[in-house]
Each structure stands twice: as C-alpha cells, then as structure tokens.
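The records we work with from here on pair a chain with its fold. A complete example follows; check for yourself that the lines match position by position.
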Amino acid sequence: MNALEMLAVVVAGVLAGGINTVVGSGTLITFPVLLAVGYPPVVANVSNSLGLVPGSLSGAFGYREELKGQGARIKRLLPASILGAIVGAILLVTLPEKAFSAIVPVLIVIALVLVVLQPWLNRKLAERTAERPADGGLLLWFGVFAGGIYGGYFGAAQGVLVMGMMGVLITEHLQRLNALKNVLTAFVNLVAGILFIFIAHVAWLPVLLLALGSVVGGQIGAKVGRKLPPTALRAVIVVVGLAAIAKLLLG
C-alpha cells in the first residue's frame, strides 16, 4: 500500500470502530476498502476481523457505565458468543464464501423487523407472559451462538442481529443492551481473530492500521451512542441495517 491507501484504511477503521460501537456493520466500510487496495476477499475478511478487535474492546470500555449490574448476563451469554465465533471462523476457511453469505440479507431483515417492532412486542409479551428471564433464556443463548457463527464468518451487521434478538427477549433499556452487545461482539472478533492467526493468512499491515483507527472510532462511537435516546438509536440501527442489505445485495 502507498501512503494514500494506508490513510484510507486508517480512516475506514475510525468509521468502522464508531459504527460498530453504536450499532454494528462497520465491516461494510472496512472490507470493501481492503478489497479496493488489492487484498483478496478471504485475506481481507480475516485481516479485517483481527484489525477491528481493538476497536470493539474500545467501544465496550466506553460503555462501561451501562454494563454495571449485567455481570450475570455476560457470564451466561459470553460462552455462546465464543463458541459461535470458533465455528464461524472454521467455516470461513473451509466453506465456499457463497455457502453462508447467501442468507445474510435475510438475517439482517429479520433483525431489523425485530428492532422496529421491539416496543410493540415488549408490550404484548408483558400482557401475555410472566416477566421474561433477565438473561433472555435458552432462546437468546442459541440466538447469540448463531450470531457468533455469523460474526466469526463475516461479521457485517452482527451487532444488528444481536441487538434485535436481545431487544425482544430481554426487558431492558436499549442503551444497556447496546453495551452488552458491544461486549459479546468484541469477544466474537477477538476469538475469531486469534484463530485466524493460526488457520488463515493474515495481512498484518492493514491489521495494524485498522486497529489504530478503530480504537479512536470506538471511543467516538461510545460518546455519541450513549447520548442517543432509544428512538434515535433504533433509527440508526435500521438505517445502518438497510445500508448493510443494500451493500450485500448490490456488491
């Protein structure tokens, strides 16, 4: 890469770090940039996942206030994310790309529907059932596991999927769920990234550039995202999710 291309990767890392912290889908910025500067798709995907790990951790740290009192949820759901990340990372290096990515737009549409309908679904569930489990129950555990598989394989809009499921299955403020999402997705990226070091080819220069940019972006995203009211945050999730679908379908 020349100097201009390196700058583009750093800027993409900043934007992705911020978007991942607020919603998710930052990969839809960084992955095309890595392709544009000449990296093959699988190498770009692997390097992108590893490079965004520091940004994910930075965003989770920025949401530390909203994480207070959620230790039990993290302990229950984190193993699901980690196991899913391992499966997804292995799938990436063993299966054809189209085998998994073909269903990604459908998954994102489902997640967006859940996000939009969350207030209505919360009211209906409250009327018909007892209080939902504080950690979302077994259904959310397997949902987070599936989200981990998706995140380990590609990761774009992983946050949208996880937020959609948690919003329906847990009675909680959206900002606190966003904080929990940041922790879960950070560990998916971390575990998948560690595996990629051993089972795939990593391009280390873009990894370092993305890491630098995403750490800055994670802090910016935390400051902006924590100030958004639930309605605004939900709107951002929908907009980014629709952009993700358009990008995946149109290429």
